[in-house]
Amino acid sequence: MERTSSYPRAILHFDGDAFFASVEQAKDWRLRGRPVVTGGERGAATSLSYEAKARGVHRSMPMRDIRRICPDVVVVSSDYTSYSIFARRMYAIVREYTDAVEEYSIDECFADITGLEQSLGMSYEEIGKAIKAKLETSLGITFGVGLSVTKTLAKVASKHRKPAGFTTIPVEEIEDYLQQTEIYDVWGLGGASGTHLRASGVTTALEYIQKDEGWLKDHGIVKPQRATWLELRGHSVLSLGSGVRALPHSVMKTRTFSPPSMDRAYIFAQLSKNVEAACVKLRKEGVKAHALSFYLKTQEFTYHGIQMEFPVALSAPSQLLAHIQTRFDEVYVSDILYRASGVTLRALVPDTAVTLDLFGEFDQLSEKQETFVALDALNKKFGRHTVFLASSMQALGTETKERFLRSGPQFKKRINIPYLGVVT
Prior knowledge:
Layout: E1 11-16, H1 19-27, E2 36-38, E3 47-48, H2 50-54, H3 63-69, E4 74-76, H4 80-95, E5 101-105, E6 108-112, H5 116-120, H6 124-139, E7 143-148, H7 151-160, E8 166-169, H8 174-178, H9 191-199, H10 205-209, H11 213-218, H12 223-232, E9 251-261, H13 264-285, E10 287-298, E11 303-314, H14 317-327, E12 338-350, H15 361-382, E13 387-389, H16 393-407, E14 415-417
Parallel strand pairs: 2-4, 7-8, 13-14
Antiparallel strand pairs: 1-6, 1-7, 2-3, 5-6, 9-12, 10-11, 10-12
C-alpha cells in the first residue's frame, strides 16, 4: 500500500478528454476513430476529437478552414442535453466512492479521498485508477486523472499525460513535475496573471514556488495568485465545494394577461417579462441556455410558437430578447386576440462550461452578465421589479398602478432600463 505520508491530503481531479466530441463518439460508434468536430450550429469548432487535433484542427477554427485541412471531418451540432447527462453520470460514479465531490464544470470534477485507504482497502493510487476505470467503462470516453495533495497540483497532474493518463504527484515529487510545467498551464495563472509572471522572469511553475513572500509582495501578487503559490507548494488552501448540484433540465415561465390584446408592443412586453423572470432563475442556478422556445396563446386557446438555438449559451434577457425580436412576427398575427405568453429555456449548461467563441461574443456577454447580476441584487434588496427592462414596462403598467393605489406613501420607486431597440 502506498505511503500515507506522501499524501497528507489526497485530492483527485477528473478531466474528460475532448469531452463534447468524445460524447458524440460514445453515442454513435461509427464516429469512433474519426476526426469529429462539434459546433456545426455556430460555424466554428467548440470541441475536437483527438483524431481531429492530430490533423491540425483547433478550437474556434471556422468550419470552412476545418474542411479544407481535414476533408473527411465529421461536423456535428452541439448536443448540450447529452453532455449534461454524461456529466451527471460522471459525478454520480465518483460519488460511489466518496461524498466529497466538487462538480467543477461539465467535464471536470474534484474528489477528496483522504482517509479512504483503510475503509476501501486500497491505496490512493488504486482508488483513483478504480474510479477512472469505471468512468471509462460506463461512459465510453476516456479521462485524464490526477492525484496530489492539493486541488491545483491535482489539476497539474491530470493534464500531464493527456489523453487517458493517470498521474500522481506526491509531496516528494512536486518539484520534478513543476519543473516541466509552464506557468501558463497552471490553473489560475493563465491570461493576464501568466503574462505578468513571465514579464517578471517566471516561466515555469517551479520558478514560481521558489519565490519568497517578499518577492510576491514586491511584484504585486494578489490573493488568488498567492493561494495558487501555496497550493503549488503543497499547502492545501482551496476548499473543495462538495454537494450534489442538480442542474435544471429547463426553465419555463408563462403568463396569462387580462384583458386579451392584439397590441404587438403589449404582447411583446408580456413575453419580455417572462424572459426576465426565466433569466433570473438561470443566474440563480449558475447556468446558461443554448436554446429557447416561446409561444403566444390565443383567446381561442390555440398555441403558436417557435424554437431557437444559440451558438453561445446565454443568460442575459436583453440578448435573448434580441433573438426573439428577429422572429416574433413569425408567431404574432396582428388581427388575433392573445391571452397568454410563455418561454422555455433549454439545453442548459453551467456557467463554467461556456466555451470561448471566435468573434469575441463571449467577452461581450460576460460584461452584460455582470450588469444583470447587479440588477438581481437590487431587486432582491428592494423588491421584485424594482429594476426591469423597459421592454417589459407595458406588462407592468396596470399592476404597478394598482400597487401604488394600495400602498400609498409606502409605494416603492421603480427604475426602468431604457430599451433602445434590439440589443446586439
